[in-house]
Every structure is written in C-alpha cells, then in structure tokens.
UniProtKB/TrEMBL annotation, chain A:
Keywords: ATP-binding, NAD, Nucleotide-binding, Nucleotidyltransferase, Pyridine nucleotide biosynthesis, Transferase
Gene: NMNAT1
Catalytic activity annotation: beta-nicotinamide D-ribonucleotide + ATP + H(+) = diphosphate + NAD(+); nicotinate beta-D-ribonucleotide + ATP + H(+) = deamido-NAD(+) + diphosphate
Source organism superkingdom: Eukaryota
Protein name, as recorded: Nicotinamide-nucleotide adenylyltransferase
NCBIfam families assigned to the protein according to its UniProt record, in alphabetical order: nicotinate (nicotinamide) nucleotide adenylyltransferase
Species, as recorded: Felis catus (Cat)
Enzyme class: transferase
TrEMBL record, chain B:
SUPFAM superfamilies documented for this protein: Nucleotidylyl transferase (SSF52374)
EC identifiers of the protein: 2.7.7.1, 2.7.7.18
Keyword terms: ATP-binding, NAD, Nucleotide-binding, Nucleotidyltransferase, Pyridine nucleotide biosynthesis, Transferase
Entry's family note: Belongs to the eukaryotic NMN adenylyltransferase family.
Keyword Lipid biosynthesis: no
Catalysis: reaction(s): beta-nicotinamide D-ribonucleotide + ATP + H(+) = diphosphate + NAD(+); nicotinate beta-D-ribonucleotide + ATP + H(+) = deamido-NAD(+) + diphosphate
Residue ranges of domain Cytidyltransferase-like in the record: 49-246
Group of enzyme by EC: transferase
Record-given protein name: Nicotinamide-nucleotide adenylyltransferase
InterPro entries per record: Cyt_trans-like (IPR004821), Euk_NMN_adenylyltrnsfrase (IPR051182), NadD/NMNAT (IPR005248), NMNAT_euk (IPR045094), Rossmann-like_a/b/a_fold (IPR014729)
Gene (name only): NMNAT3
C-alpha cells in the first residue's frame, strides 16, 4: 500500500510518568513497529501526556518535575514528544477528553493554510468542499478527508486495559468512545489475558478491530513503582531510566519516603468524580 | 530478603558514610588517595568481572553490575572498587558472534558514561579461546600488580596493606551460569572449584532459574556457597542479546534496550542485519 493510502496515526500515552522509565519509552517503539508493520498505518508522532496533580494518586510528585523528566527522556527522540496541556489543567481531566483535545488540535492544524506539509497545502474546510464541487474529476482532488487528518490512538499497557474493569474508575460511555471513536494500542506480555478481557466485555468486543494487542515478547518490568522503591532504598536505577532523568532525580532529590506519602488517604480523582456523579 | 536489621543498618550507613549515589561524585573511593569513612575502610575491596559474548552489550548487562554492587554494599562486608567487562575471544566460535573488535568497541561506547566499569580486551586479543578461570587469574594478578605500595603519603590509612585490604576479584554473571556448571564437559571440575573457592561469584537472578537449586545440586557449590552471592534483581528483565539481534535483523527498534551510542555504532557498521557472513 502506498504511503498516501495509509492512515496516519499519532500515539498518545496518558499516565502518571512518576517517573518516566525506559519501559514507557519502549511502548512507543513497539507500537510504532507494530502499526507500521501492518501496512495500513503510518505512525507520525508519539505524545506523552503526564497527568495533572489533581489526579491525587499516592506518591504523585508535582507535574512540573514529571513533565521535565519526560522532556529529558525524549530529548533524543525524533518522533516522541511531551504535551503539557493535561498537566496544566486545574481539575483532573478524563482520558477521553485528552484524546479529544489532541484529535481536535490535529484537525485544526490540518485546516491551517499556513501549515508546512510535505504534501499539497491543505486549504480550509470550507474552501476544500467548494473546490471539490468545482474541481470535479481533476487529478489534484484531495484524498478523502478521513485519510488526511491523522488519527489519535491511545497507547497503553495491559494494566490500563484491565483497569477498565475497576468500578467507578472509568465511565462506561467513555470506554465505549475511547475504543469506538479513537482506538487502543495495548502492549502486553500476556496476550491471552488481554484477549480474554476483551472477549468478556461487550463494549470492548464490539470495537475489537480498533483494539490492537501488541505482544511484548520479553518481559521488561521497569515500573515506576519499582524505580521509586529502589531510590528510597539507595539502590541504583541506572540503565532503567534515561541518564538525564536519573541525574535530574538525583539533583532534585525527588523521591523519598515523604514523597511516597503524598495523597495518602485522599480519594483518587476519577473515583471521587464518578462516585459523586453516580450518587447525584 | 532484607531483615529489619539490615534495613536499619543500611539507613544508618547511608547517612554516616557521606557516600552519595551520584556517579559524578564517584560512588566509592578508588584504591588510592581518597578519604574513606571508617566503616568502609574495613570492608573487603571487590572488583567484578563479567565474561561473555556481549554480542551486543545491552542495558541488562550493565544492570548486572549495578545490582551486584548494590547487593555487595548492602551486606556491609564489601566495597566494590571496579567492574570489568571481558568480551569473549572470536575463537569461541559461537553462532552469529561478530568480530571481537566490534564487540569491544560497543562495550566501550556503552561504558562511556560509567565511572567504575571498563572494558578489557585482553581475553579477546589472545590467540585462542581461554577458560574463564584463566581470565580470572589474569585479571586478579593484574589487580594485585596495580595496588599502591606502602611507601607514599599517609592518607590516614594503615601503613601497611592489611590482609583484608587485598582486593578480591569475583565473577559476575546471571544465575543461569550456575546451571551450565552441570552440563557435562562444559566446565572442568577443577576450574569450577577454583572459581568458587579462590575467587567467588556474584549471580544475578533471571526468570526461570532457581539458583538455590543449582547450588544444592552440586557438592562443590554447596561447600563454597558462602562465596556465591545470589542477588535478586527486582526488575524482571528477559532482555537478551539474542532478542536484540533478532529485532535488528527484522528491522525493529531496539531503542532504550541498549545505549544510543551502541545502536548508532551497529547501524554505522551494518552489524546484525541478518545477512550471513
């Protein structure tokens, strides 16, 4: 399939990134190889969107630091970048809204006549429609709009997929829209468990074609929790996180028994919000 | 398993020792000339030696050193003063082994940012493949040869080299190596004995291996089990050079699995493309 027929994809990863690790970065690489390998997609960008402080997760340090660490981690990446929109919001933002924000941003910039694009300059929506009516049959006719604007897809590990089952953590409608309108790319070791999970959920099953399970053949278990634990115990985290991130953590002494106690006793924002709405 | 006592000891030690874990400050005193707090002075100095193909070197290899060092330090008995990576000779004739000069160069690039681990090409430069025990003997005698003499400015240390200050060279490896001791004809019995008796081993756990079982299944290993340090790596990692080679030959990304400088080298020299050479 020619490049021009492929769907362009932007991979969006939401999460605490507390701190970002080599495993997070691997998710992007694995997903890109997989999606490009299907021959139907072309991954053009990866976006890391650290969650805002209002998420209130235990041990979550300030977004300011988490964003900087993610930026340091992606300094040497040609295609993965950090977006701060979510982290700058005052209240916690549902993942669906973050997806929507990024999709709308892509659509807006694809309508921008000043946009420097390797392909033909794309005129504004109105003009294009008018042009199509006039330039009927001309070779320069733009491709169908659905292929023009890149699609944002949610990149995650199996833990996020399975968290769909946690009561009140997600709104049911949100899950449906995430997999229905956007799509999920889930990197997992235990492919069978993930498939079973999808099978057992009507909402997920319906949109299973929009859920891409990517097998991570080698266990690469570098969780942020283990990183923080190692730091508290004075153990080395070298080669588990990018060197710049490690140096930043050391310089600012970011993780300690005290930092791990943050938000203890506080209800996680989505649980609070969804329970309140359910009770209202 | 950490007992409460070990945890308390470690916490106190970290505070008293002034040793930060920042590599820029140098984590542990090298042999000469640096002030060492009393607690560290009485520890046995250790150099870790890792033999292997390093075909190519990966973050997992580098982790072995970090994890082993942390473990030895937290026993309270050792201070790790150096690490050596010794890539195997080409005459080992393992399948897909790229030329030693490449493997050495890649290891060197990977260790650019390390202040305590270095690559030593001696083994790879010999005319033929040599048994691990010979590599250990060589590096141990080199180590003894490089020790500071007793005359010289007094830095507050003992005037003569106390017996406990003689550095020990230990073989650093994955726990799977212990299993290979059981393979008939792979190792000489006398060599296994010399390795565990005269040098010692630091074995880092790998998924699917039960090192305690390997030890209890061997009389020699059991006898010297005090000299075989079993280290648990909490971050389970199945990363292997085999996986890297396969990914590379399939055109897949290996970023974040090995240092960027090594990936660049591999691309520049067209290594591991899957073309049989």
């Amino acid at each position: 399939m020619e490049n021009s027929e492929k769907t362009e994809v932007v991979l969006l990863a939401c999460g605490s990134f507390n701190p970002i690790t080599n495993m997070h970065l691997r998710l992007f690489e694995l997903a890109k190889d997989y999606m490009n390998g299907t021959g139907k997609y072309r991954v053009i960008k990866g976006v890391i969107s650290p969650v805002g402080d209002a998420y209130k997760k235990k041990g979550l340090i300030s977004a300011h630091h988490r964003v900087i660490m993610a930026e340091l981690a992606t300094k040497n990446s040609e295609w993965v970048e950090v977006d701060t929109w979510e982290s700058l919001q005052k209240d916690w933002v549902e993942t669906l809204k973050v997806l929507r924000h990024h999709q709308e941003k892509l659509e807006a910039s694809s309508c921008d006549p000043q946009q420097d694009s390797p392909r033909l300059e794309r005129p504004g929506r109105k003009r294009k429609w008018a042009e199509q009516r006039q330039d009927f049959g001309q070779k320069e006719l733009l491709e169908p709009k659905t292929k023009d604007v890149p699609k944002v897809k949610l990149l995650c590990g199996a833990d996020l997929l399975e968290s769909f089952g946690v009561p009140n953590l997600w709104k049911r409608e949100d899950i449906t829209r995430i997999v229905g309108d956007y799509g999920l790319i889930c990197i997992t070791r235990a492919g069978n468990d993930a498939e079973k999970f999808i099978y057992e959920s009507d909402a997920l099953w319906k949109h299973r074609n929009n859920i891409h399970l990517v097998n991570e053949w080698i266990t690469n278990d570098i969780s942020s929790t283990k990183i923080r634990r190692a730091l508290r115990r004075g153990q080395s985290i070298r080669y588990l996180v990018p060197d710049l991130v490690r140096e930043y953590i050391e310089k600012h002494d970011l993780y300690s028994p005290e930092s791990e106690e943050r938000n203890v006793g506080v209800v996680l924002a989505p649980l609070q919000k969804n329970t309140a709405e359910a009770n209202s | 398993m950490y007992t409460l006592g070990t945890l308390i000891y470690t916490a106190v030690w970290c505070q008293l020792s002034n040793m930060s874990y920042c590599p820029h400050e140098g984590r542990v005193a090298t042999a000469v000339g640096v002030e060492v707090p009393d607690k560290m002075k009485s520890r046995i100095p250790v150099v870790l030696l890792a033999c292997g193909s390093f075909n190519p070197i990966t973050n997992m290899h580098l982790r072995l050193f970090e994890v082993a060092r942390d473990h030895l330090h937290q026993t309270g008995m050792y201070k790790v003063i150096g690490g050596i990576i010794s890539p195997v000779n080409d005459n080992y004739r393992k399948k897909d082994l790229v030329a030693a000069h490449h493997r050495v160069a890649m290891a060197r690039l990977a260790l650019q940012t390390s202040d305590w681990i270095r690559v030593d090409p001696w083994e790879s430069e010999q005319a033929q493949w040599m048994e691990t025990v010979k590599v250990l003997r060589h590096h141990h005698s080199e180590l003894l040869r490089s020790l500071p003499q007793t005359e010289g400015p007094d830095h507050g240390r003992a005037h003569s080299l106390a017996p406990t200050a003689v550095p020990e060279l230990k073989l650093l490896c994955g726990a799977d190596i212990l299993k290979t001791f059981q393979t008939p004809n792979l190792w000489k019995e006398a060599h296994i004995q010399e390795i565990v008796e005269k040098f010692g081993m630091v074995c880092v756990s790998r998924t699917g291996h039960n090192p305690k079982e390997y030890i209890s299944g061997s009389a020699i290993l059991q006898r010297y089990q005090h000299n075989i340090h079993l280290v648990r790596e909490p971050v389970q990692n199945e990363l292997s050079s085999t996986y890297i080679r396969r990914a590379l030959s399939q055109g897949q990304s290996v970023k974040y699995l090995l240092p960027d400088a090594v990936i660049t080298y591999i691309k520049e020299h067209n290594l591991y493309t899957g073309d049989s050479s």
